[in-house]
Amino acid sequence: MTTANILLNVNSIEVIYNHVILVLKGVSLSVPEGNIVALLGGNGAGKTTTLRAVSNLLHGERGEVTKGSIECRGERIEALTPADLVKRGVVQVMEGRHCFGHLTIEENLMTGSYTRTDGKAAVAQTLEKVYNYFPRLKTRRTSQAAYTSGGEQQMCAIGRALMANPTMVLLDEPSMGLAPQIVDEVFGIVKDLNQREKVTFLLAEQNTNMALRYADFGYILENGRVVMEGAASDLANNEDVKEFYLGISSGERKSFREAKHYRRRKRWLA
Amino acid sequence: MAFFLETLLGGLMSGMLYSLVALGFVLIFKASGVFNFAQGAMVLFAALAMARFSEWIPAWLGMENLFVANLLAFVVAVAIMFVVAWLIERLALRHLVNQDGATLLMATLGIAYVLDGIGQTIFGSDIYKIDVGMPKEPVMMLESVFEGGILINKEDFIAALIAALLVISLSIFFQKTATGRALRAVADDHQAAQSIGIPLDRIWVIVWCVAGITALVAGIIWGSKLGVQFSLSTIALRALPVVILGGLTSVPGAIIGGLIIGVGEKLSEVYLGPFVGGGIEIWFAYMLALVFLLFRPQGLFGEKIIDRV
Amino acid sequence: MKLRKLAVAASLAAIGLSAALTTPAFAAEEQFFPVLAYRTGAYAPNGTPWANGFVDYLKLTNARGGVNGVKMIWEECETGYATDRGVECYERLKGKHGGATAVQPLSTGITFALTEKAPVDKIPVITAGYGRSESQNGAVFGWNFPLVGTYWMGADVLVQHIGKKEGGLDKLKGKKIALVYHDSPYGKEPIALLQERARMHGFEVSLLPVAHPGVEQKATWLQIRQSKPDYVFLWGWGVMNSTSLKEAQATGYPREKMYGIWWAGAEPDVKDVGDGAKGYNALAMQHGAEPDSKVVKEVLEKLHAKGQGTGPKEEVGQVLYMRGLISSMLQVEAVRAAQGRYGKGKRITGEQMRWGLENLNLDQKALDGMGLGGVMRPVQTSCLDHMGSAWARVHTWDGKKWNFTSDWYQGDEKVLRPMVMLASGKYAEEKKIKPRTPEDCKK
Is the confidence metric ipTM above 0.90 for this complex? Predict the structure, then answer.
């Protein structure tokens, strides 16, 4: 990894909500161009906050980056608006999908092209491309997003972000609330996009197993700090990760008593 | 029968005027989730600007042509409403992003007072005339069908036509343009809209501009009918039940709600009023709104209230 | 936090606004009059000229050298024609500058509210041309002065007038009169008299209330169109009047058949209706629009020419301006009368003011001297009669200005007196007031 192709660089940032609640306590990470980088950890570990800090959506939640810096291609971006960032090619797909429920699928997708200035034809082309990746969306194009399934909404949210023609997508918890085979489908498409369209992904995910299968690199967050990082394959084979996040251990299945032991250890780790 | 039809028509016409004001409410609520109490003040402000400039411009330029004067005054009034919209976003809303509804509501109450005050200070508190050449005398129709015919008010008719035109152009704007789509997106989900690069501040300025134009059109029609004076500002209160009935988020709802209230009011006043000593008109709309709040809070056409989990 | 800032800014703006509208009181400590006015809100177009005339006459009095050297001072308070705000204004101003001499609320609602406060504070309530009609009886209503006209008297004159038009009061039998009224104490005042007269002459009165502020009258006028009354009496105020005229035009009701009370017969009521109001009649409370009167010329010369006038000078002499001016004149003359008894050149108290108001005697010579000859008729009050004059005439809008179209009428004592006595007697019983006797009056 050389600095030249590092797309995003987060340097020991601290995030405080409502002036008092310290959520991130010095998180550093970097995302190389063309990679899928996974951000792992349990509930409340700070994954979403990290993504929001990058996409500058913190303000709406009364959060603030108080220390550290965030750079995109070497340019400081903390002070930009979310719209500026989208114009620079960084789009976030929010946790819980957040489709515009009263708009149709196609209208949802079209809103994604709001910042585009390269003309209707180019936008139409992108729309075609999105439909190619998500053929399911094409069949539901005229239905209101609120009345589509969770998987379709997740696809819609990703497709909508793609409509901005991004170089990097911040993908928050895409597997949440989806059936396993849908999760597979979504991740497959993400991988596809990454390889064929060269879209870089920063992926926050609780489903560690799934994320590590598709990611190139991973960071594990706990309580606002990065506690482990490494190539995805290394992490997947790490004993601790296996035990705490993947729920498998080298030996036979754990007994109930040992499960309690695991919980204790986790608390200690935190 | 003829009298019933007349009452019905009269109701429809005044309902149309309520709808115009209600539209302003709906537009802003749809796009920003703000219940804009200042809509009435905006109607008054816009009408005052229109009335005074249509009086001042001919005096400044020394010309007589009523049409040109009105046109220029209209342009100036639109520009003024844009400035007002921009100031409201800049000075108030920008600082209140993501606050809860009650806070924003209070802010618009404050805006209403400031607009009322400033409007009367700049433009005066006398009664002013907007003369856009609306015909005032009634015409009789269907005289062969009913004895004495049915009385129709041309002015109301034209007003209804203008209102209809405004609604159609607004629907096109909302449904077919990229900006309209963005407005609806913002209405659905502020954060998601922000996440895909829709700039909230600009969208809000646009919404308030559109509401400003609606206020101006309403102000011109009401003003030409009633004269431009302070009570235009209180007309907004009569549009309140309309939006509750029609649904806060529905443009067609605002129209149909207005019509229902207009007709209901007039019919009940004329046919039930004599038994209770009159004055039904005053509370009819509010009572209807109350019933709706109890049994169908989203209104007739409002979008279902889907709470996020 | 931001919200608080906004609220503070808004209220500051509001304070600044009302402060700008309040005339600063003079430094000299003299005869003090509170001015309860409304220059903003729904009734501002009508309240403003009244207040301008009112204040201009106080200024004119000072320009004439005061009342035996006593200067008039005043302070304005904005009531917005709202009863609660009016009472607040009264409470705020009643004790200022040595105490209020008299108060003129320009609202029947506020008058009702002050009627019980005034005797306690010993401040006369002057309601020239409005207020409660039974307060003409000074024996019961010791502190109310409905000078120069009450609504019963006004309604009585209107009935007399249409009776004359029809060729005699007996010809009113079977006629239909619709009363379109402001749904407030003000608008309800004439009902009692009209019903009394209806009983006497056999005509029919239908009551059509209009809610504040009166911009919604479609149903009212549809009812009128259906029932086709022979006459419509209009008891409106502010924007309600012009709305009535516009709706009459829109439903084709002949304006010639419409008669307004004197509060529905001024320029703001018809101005923006223009030709649509042509033929509309209204009572003139003695005076009409008096641009040619001597007092108006004096005001223009002594005040407006020097830039000391209140309001635009085009408005001087208009109907409501004159109403305000005359209302103000009556209180100034009462001060003069009181000084005659309690000492010339001295500041008088509220109680002494009452004596002055009960002993007003403005004969033709006095009126001529003030430049009001031809504008109004002589006024003479007494302890028992707090009205002092029951004359009125009708004027008609010709599309551009008001012109007198009738002779003088006098309210019929035979009808009015029993009603006043009955109603005030009831009030005295209710409030346990012992009516004053003629002997009490001599004290």
Answer: no
